[in-house]
Design brief:
69% helix; 115 residues; 4 helices; mainly alpha
Length: 115
């Protein structure tokens, strides 16, 4: 199970980095989101992967660590706010520049039109 979990985190990070290197804003936003999902899964796995354990203290001898769960919930909220900010930033960049390239440079056809 640990190998499958680590593979999923690795695939999410790989796809996220690949999308971050694209020239358009929408794939960059998706890449950031995928990397934040991978970080959430990594944080969740830091509390050990256990099955059929109590979530809170006092209900059994074995219990799951609640700290990684709290960290993941906090990371989900922060990730949602970050995604909303980046989407608004990319919409504003497209409105100001007229295209959605990450580097902000105009294409050759747009340069010709402006001259």
């Amino acid at each position: 199970m640990e190998l499958l979990y680590a593979s999923c985190v690795g695939v999410l990070v790989t796809c996220g980095v690949f999308l971050l290197l694209r020239a358009r804003t929408f794939p960059v936003v998706l890449g950031l989101t995928m990397i934040s999902y991978a970080v959430n899964l990594f944080l969740f796995s830091s509390g050990r992967l256990t099955i059929n354990k109590a979530v809170v203290l006092g209900t059994g001898a074995d219990y799951a660590d609640p700290l990684p769960q709290a960290l993941v919930l906090t990371a989900i909220v922060i990730g949602f706010a970050m995604t909303a900010f980046v989407v608004i930033l990319s919409i504003r960049g497209r409105a100001d520049l007229g295209n959605d390239h990450v580097d902000g440079n105009l294409t050759r056809s747009k340069r010709k039109e402006r001259k």
